[in-house]
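Re: the request from the purification team.
They wanted to know what the chain is likely to look like in 3D before they choose a buffer screen. I agreed to run a prediction and write the result into the notebook, where they can find it.
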Amino acid sequence: MSSVYDLIVIGSGPGGYVCAIRAAQLGMKVACVEKRDTLGGTCLNIGCIPSKALLSTSEKYHAAQSEFEKFGIKTGGVKLDLPTMMKYKDSVVEANTKGIEFLFKKNKIDWLKGEGKITAKNKVDVDGTEYETKNIVIATGSDVAGLSGIKIDEEKIVSSTGALELTKVPKEMVVIGGGVIGLELGSVWSRLGSNVTVIEFVDQILPGMDGEIRKEANKIFKRQGIQFKLSTKVTSAKATKSGVDLTLEPAAGGTSEKLNADVVLVSVGRKAYTESLGLDTVGVETDERGRIKTDGHFKTNVDGIYAIGDVIAGPMLAHKAEDEGFILAEMLDGQSGHIDYNLIPGVVYTWPEVANVGQTEEQLKESGVAYKVGKFPFMANGRARAMNAVDGFVKIIADAKTDRVLGCHIIGPEAGTLIAEVVLGMEFGASSEDIARTCHAHPTLEEVVKEAALAVHGGEIHM
């Protein structure tokens, strides 16, 4: 193993490992620092991948319980085997992390096992051993954000990490936070038998998303059995022998109420993970939220030190970090790079899924942009009916003058896959007419995207 490198990446999550692999492909001598026993960061180990495994398995369990009979499939008594479900989840994680380890070996990337600390602009210490490098990329990701006065013990009061490791289905579960992670994990445990209550400080779930999508999601999730307490804040949550005692009050102030749960999931966001990196030692600047300040080329104020992913400004999404890592590696090779942060899609992997890209109606109204909207429901789509997946709609927003697509918002089956067509179109400046006049196979869910594009100018066919 070398002690001198062209690039050392600190953190092996999606941003870090992609940056390392791309840099190695371009001929650089690369090392990646990771203190976990496995590669892949939060996403592969305790985030995106295990949660999607549980979302998938819980969907199948729920379908076997409540939907298969409608399709003429009689399964008899369906029983939950939670230990086996968790074992499957762990096997998915292991396969993915081992895959990254294989790619490191294939691309001759050295894994520096331990905790990394920057000691100078071209030096990184890993558990007492110092390595020299031309460039350093900080890709340490994010950590769970807590709530003041509420202690997460990962047993009764859990973060997303603890919610992925529960050994039994809680009878009553409270989720603090109606964002992406809270709704995904709340959905998992609701399908498996929990009575789930989501408490959200603002007046609607999925803050920041399109208003119509938020209302539709609330309606669908309520129908699935999830309860909501909106415009409500949690003032205390204390673990007891029998569970967790919570005190709630209206966000605007007023009379408090008590609530009891077996498990409480605290899901109020994430914060940049920059502890113990030695940023102060080398003078790397951070903002008021603890994120590392960078210019348009991911460069910090210190020459040779860069940062990507959750530790810098922008949405905390794995695919955003991946794009940044890929582009930065090419920039270090002397190539040009570009990322349009308005075109980073967001996906909520509930059922139905929720996906969005670009501007919302609320944002366009606030900025005074004239626009047109086209909407089309999945209920009017033949493939959706065949799948018994008719909830939701596709909504396309286009500039009133130029017809250029400004945003797309989807709630419905496979929304996370359907959004890709619109992201690609927007990347190349597509109009709603461009999408509408592109031939879409029949019968597919993608036809709902086409019909929504047609609807921008009132030309939808199947409504």
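For the purification team: The mean pLDDT is 96.
Please add any questions underneath this entry.
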